[in-house]
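Saturday, quiet lab. Running sequence design on the structure tokens for the scaffold JK sent over.
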């Protein structure tokens, strides 16, 4: 790998840290957010300190040959622990159980980190090796054990992550499952990194020379594993966000028929506040819902509960379920009210309405009720029948106050 292959992901992680930093500081008590941020930081540090120019700089600064190797191994162990903590917090479950599991993993990898530094101090590695430290010192007492320890700790973490991802993936569906399977592939690739290192070391023990597996292939596998895992973590969140936006715009579009029907019923014809067309989808939906509610309020004097009841019975008789029948009944009442309003251009029914007319029979509920009404306006044969009757009444010019 070239030096840029190490620094490119390190710079990308540094940018992510800067962008995510304010959000993390505002919600530092959120264990999931802390886990994500810790993983990003450690990932960037691993690539930065594993780069050969950084290795040389650290060794010169500290004044100890190959101190950078021990530092990178400790960072790799901390990174392995952070991956496990992220998956634990991401999965959720009983908080106390998650905290106990997190404490066990942190304690275990803290022991690994302390043991790594202790073995490095006990060993003797006087000649600086920037790219082939593992194979060059494969037979050196204590240094050999240090290398095997970090590879074992890395392999254990990766196997645990694969098992956890696989078990969780069997319980979920959709983008989350896809993300978990991608993450599992990433950690499987990381195991091949450890396997390549170990193969080169064993070859050294037996007098062979497969150093290229450790110095060339293993770093490339580590970079690929990092990229695959990052994609796996991003896929569920990014696709969920896209899906939410798509769903919001779908709601906006499905509210269109009801919104257009009620525009003539708006007594003012416009609103004091209008949002720009480029505003977020959530605001667009809120504005459209507000317009619909205003239109329903203006139609209140023309609402006829009997029309609603008859339409509900007709929808049930036609095989509609409870929710759909209610939506068709509400839409039929609105359609009849619009017809009555069109047949009363002078507004005599509105003038005759009194303050004690009783509570508004306007359809209750949130956006889902409005969406059901809007869909029924366009598709329900029950509403179509009421529309024809309302049109004939409007043609005779005989308004009825149906309140």
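Result came back. Writing it out in full:
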């Amino acid at each position: 790998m070239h030096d840029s292959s190490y620094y490119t992901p390190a710079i990308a992680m540094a940018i992510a840290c800067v962008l995510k930093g304010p959000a993390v500081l505002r919600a530092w008590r959120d264990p999931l957010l802390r886990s994500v941020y810790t993983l990003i930081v450690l990932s960037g540090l691993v690539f930065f300190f594993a780069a050969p120019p950084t290795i040389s700089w650290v060794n010169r600064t500290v004044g100890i040959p190959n101190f950078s190797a021990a530092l990178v191994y400790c960072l790799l162990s901390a990174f392995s622990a952070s991956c496990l903590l992220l998956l634990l917090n991401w999965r959720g479950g009983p908080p106390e159980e998650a905290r106990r599991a997190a404490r066990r993993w942190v304690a275990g990898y803290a022991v690994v980190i302390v043991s790594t530094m202790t073995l490095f101090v006990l060993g003797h590695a006087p000649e600086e090796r920037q790219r082939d430290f593992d194979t060059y010192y494969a037979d050196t007492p204590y240094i050999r054990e240090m290398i095997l320890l970090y590879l074992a700790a890395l392999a254990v973490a990766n196997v645990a992550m694969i098992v956890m991802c696989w078990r969780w993936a069997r319980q979920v569906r959709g983008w989350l499952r896809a993300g978990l399977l991608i993450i599992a592939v990433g950690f499987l690739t990381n195991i091949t990194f450890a396997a390549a290192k170990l193969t080169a070391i064993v070859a050294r023990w037996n007098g062979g020379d497969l150093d290229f597996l450790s110095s060339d292939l293993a770093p490339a596998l580590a970079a690929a594993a990092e990229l695959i895992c990052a994609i796996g973590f991003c896929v569920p969140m990014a696709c969920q966000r896209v899906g939410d936006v798509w769903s919001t715009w779908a709601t906006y579009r499905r509210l269109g028929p009801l919104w257009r029907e009620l525009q003539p019923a708006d007594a003012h014809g416009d609103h004091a506040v209008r949002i720009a067309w480029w505003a977020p989808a959530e605001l667009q939906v809120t504005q459209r819902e507000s317009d619909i509610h205003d239109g329903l309020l203006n139609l209140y004097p023309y609402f006829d509960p009997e029309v609603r009841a008859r339409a509900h019975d007709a929808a049930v008789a036609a095989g509609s379920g409870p929710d759909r029948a209610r939506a068709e009944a509400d839409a039929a009442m609105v359609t009849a009210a619009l017809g009555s309003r069109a047949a009363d251009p002078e507004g005599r029914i509105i003038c005759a309405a009194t303050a004690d007319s009783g509570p508004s029979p306007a359809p209750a509920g949130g956006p889902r009720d409005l969406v059901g009404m809007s869909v029924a306006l366009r598709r329900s044969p029950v509403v179509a029948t009421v529309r024809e009757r309302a049109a004939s009444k409007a043609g005779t010019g005989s308004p009825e106050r149906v309140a």
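Notes for JK: The two ends are 79 Å apart (CA to CA). The chain has two domains: 3-245, 255-396. Ask whether to fix the surface positions before the next round.
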